Amino acid sequence: MKNGVVIVGAGHAGVQAAASLREEGYDGPVILLGDEKELPYHKPPLSKTFIKDVAAQPQPLRGETFYTGHSIDFRPGSLVESIDVPARRLALAGGEDLAYDHLILATGSRPRILPLPGTDLAGVLSLRSVADARAIREHSAGCEDVVVIGGGFIGLEIAATLAAGGRRVTVVEALDRLLGRAVAPLIAEHVRKRLEASGIRILLKTTIERIEGDNGHVSGALTSAGERLPAKMVIIGIGVVPNVELAQAADLAIANGIRVDQQMRSSAAEIFAIGDNASYRHWQTGGDVRLESVQNATDQAKLAARTIVGRGSDYGAVPWFWSDIGDMKLQMVGLTAGSDRQMLSGDPADNRFSVYHFIGERLVAIESVNRPADHMLGRKMLGLGFSPTPEQVAGGAEALKAALAALPAA
Q1: Which of 27, 28, 7, 26 is nearest to 16 (CA)?
Q2: Burial, 127: exposed, middle or buried (Cβ in 10 Å; 0-12, 13-18, 19+)?
Q3: Across-strand partners of 233?
Q4: CA-to-CA distance for 228 and 62, rounded, in angstroms?
Q5: Given this model, what pLDDT does residue 142 score?
Q6: If one looks up domain 113-238 in CATH, what number appears?
Q7: Distance, CA of 140 to CA of 222 (rounded, Å)
């Protein structure tokens, strides 16, 4: 009797791994362990539609019948305490011992902690789970002033959503621009201007010295410039850290995440890591990366399943990301690391434009604002290894489509 595959983590990566194992014809036991009591759900809506709509419910990744119908043993509320690598066994909270043939670690990440006085006050929150989103929604119902610490994607998504709901929002960012190294400076500046035009106050090159409270509840935040910002809610969004403690305690290789090879294997051949917690050598940049995106989690899960059934290949998925911030849909494809030339397509004044990134003549990434056609074409171009000329980029979507259509003849 097979012990089968045990998957630790029931987010996007873990659920996709379970589904892909069945799609690939794996007929052994598949056990999916989730630490939350919820049915696995989509996370991107939590910072947008969920927190602004009191009636919104989590959107399930799969219906409950999917798990039973595909003989996937989904166990919510399961906490893994340790891994015995030589014995291929897990110790679960409560005393249960669980054997496996293959183990997939899809443990994700958690919000980075801000070591400041006052972070333990009621109303100081971060967003990672549906429980966090419910808390933000409940607190926002009774407050007018909100401080968001961190000008990254998650902080700006929440800031835009709460501001649209009538709150006075201040974003505090330690760097000299929003979105750090996540997007081109031109896009970061465009986002800043549109958010400020919508009424959001943005403080750059500013940090928070302490969070103040009244009767155990947050009442304000003191900046490095000495300004006191009133706040009935403070959102901390300064990035995440990968959940590697379980793997680290089992002596698996760790390097800004669980180190994996091109087939998603960890340093123990029967243990895989996928999603936010997996660090690997990227095919495009040649450097080590750990990507936090639904696409990366999904594609790595599919590859881990293929590897387990003996049909694995080197990971070569083109990375892509998205973020909805106010009236701006940001879509990114590829990685900008090492790019030395940029080309603008479209006009930022129209709130519709793209920035093409090149290394020499080679296209490596496209960042778009409200230009979904550019994004989809970018995914095709990078997937095919095709780099457009400046004239083709200037010609817009039609010129790029024509260039792609001509590839087979060429």
Answers
A1: 7
A2: buried
A3: 146
A4: 45
A5: 84
A6: 3.50.50.60
A7: 20
- C-alpha distances in Å from residue 334, one per residue of 143, 157, 183, 206, 378: 39, 22, 11, 30, 8
Structure tokens at 286: 């040649």
327-405 has which CATH code? Answer: 3.30.390.30
Q: Which CATH architecture has domain 5-110+241-308?
A: 3-Layer(bba) Sandwich (3.50)
What token pair was written down for 303? 């590859």
Q: How far apart are CA 382 and CA 336, in angstroms?
A: 12
Residues in the chain: 410
Write out the two tokens for 87: 């014995």
Residue showing tokens 């409950």? 64
Question: CB count, 10 Å around CB of 189?
Answer: 15
Task: Decide if 137 contacts 51 (C-beta within 8 A).
Answer: yes
Cα(277)–Cα(264) distance, integer angstroms? 11
Q: Do the Cβ atoms of 147 and 170 come closer than 8 Å?
A: yes
| C-beta separation of 363 from 369 below 8 A | no
Q: Is there a contact between 8 and 34 (Cβ–Cβ < 8 Å)?
A: no
Helices (H), 165-284: 185-197, 245-249
Pairing mode of beta strands 362-369, 352-359: antiparallel
pLDDT along the chain (410 residues), means of 10: 92 98 97 96 95 93 96 97 98 95 98 94 97 96 95 97 96 96 94 98 98 96 97 96 98 97 97 97 90 96 98 94 97 94 96 97 97 96 94 92 82
Residue 239 host element (H or E): none
Rounded Cα distance, 27 and 48, in Å: 39
On whether the CB atoms of residues 232 and 218 are closer than 8 A, the answer is yes
Task: Give pLDDT, residue 123.
Answer: 97
- CA–chain centroid gap for 95, Å, is 33
Q: Is the dihedral of CA 122, 127, 128, 133 positive or negative?
A: positive
CA-based nearest residue to 359, from 338, 374, 383: 338
Q: How far is 346 from 353, CA to CA, in rounded Å?
A: 4
Residue 344 β-bridge partners: 355
Q: Structure tokens of 24? A: 């690939």
Please, where in the chain does CATH 3.50.50.60 lie? 5-110+241-308, 113-238
- Edge-to-edge order in the sheet of strand 201-203: 124-125, 233-236, 145-149, 168-172, 201-203
